[in-house]
Specification:
Layout lengths: L7 H11 L14 E10 L2 E10 L5 E10 L9 H15 L6 E5 L11 H9 L3 E5 L17 E6 L2 E7 L8 E7 L3 H10 L8 H16 L3 H10 L2
Parallel strand pairs: 1-4, 4-5
Antiparallel strand pairs: 1-2, 2-3, 5-8, 6-7, 7-8
Helix pairs in contact: 2-3
């Protein structure tokens, strides 16, 4: 699996090999299901969570999670090697597979054009979008204060993402295409998934679930009950 690396040298080599596989020219159409992927950490364990919604109605349908031992250190730009395996494991637990992945992290707005959203999109052969709370690299002007306002995030004169206001007078999010999606489709999907909150709904639920699963991990019986019933 191109998500496993025991050291930084191997991780760099994997990124170099995969970035030629990135496809960014596809407008996303006929989306029926969208999945948010997020992770939390506690005492050497990473909890990967997946939350499935229909689209565009955004009715919650299903949750899944996994708990795996952390096998890679925290190094900016290499997040996929730290939590990607857990997120993929959670994704595989979903009974219904999504048409699009919405991932807490960056896509091509990354030093190697291979952030976690791009990396997972390639591995799972799914359209993927990165939506991050902070910028990793690039230059931008602040967007307008109204919901839907955005400016482009650029790197060396190339548009690699957007700085998008998902709620009036609230900090923007940083959207970047992952794989099999173009920039404007990525912006449109994130905005349509943002219902009164800064963070789009599938990611908001996946984040909440990851925190809940982490807290319940102290009690195996309660954690198993969470997996069966959701929350």
């Amino acid at each position: 699996m191109h998500i496993l690396a025991k050291n930084l040298k191997t991780a760099k080599r994997i990124q170099e090999r995969l970035r030629d596989k990135v496809l960014l020219t596809f407008p996303v159409k006929r989306v029926k299901f969208i999945c948010g992927l997020d992770a939390s950490y506690s005492k050497g364990i990473v909890y990967g969570c997946a939350s499935l919604f229909n689209f565009p109605e955004l009715e919650h349908l299903e949750d899944a999670f996994s708990a795996l031992r952390v096998e890679f250190p925290y190094i900016p730009g290499f997040l996929s090697f730290r939590e990607g395996k857990a997120l993929i494991s959670a994704y595989k637990e979903l009974k219904t597979k999504p048409d699009v992945l919405l991932i807490d992290g960056h896509g091509i707005a990354h030093p190697k054009s291979l952030g976690i959203a791009t990396h997972l999109g390639i591995i799972l052969s799914k359209p993927s979008v990165g939506c991050a709370k902070s910028v990793l690299l690039g230059e931008y002007l602040p967007p307008g204060e109204k919901r839907g306002s955005y400016t482009y995030l650029t790197l060396d004169g190339r548009e690699v993402g957007a700085v998008l206001r998902t709620k009036d007078h609230t900090k923007p999010v940083f959207v970047s295409p992952g794989h099999m999606v173009d920039l404007h489709s990525a912006i449109d999907l994130v905005l349509k998934c943002s219902l009164g909150y800064r963070i789009p709904e599938p990611l908001r639920r996946a984040h909440t679930l990851s925190k809940r699963v982490k807290n319940l991990s102290r009690s195996p019986s309660r954690l198993a009950d969470c997996k069966v019933k959701g929350y």
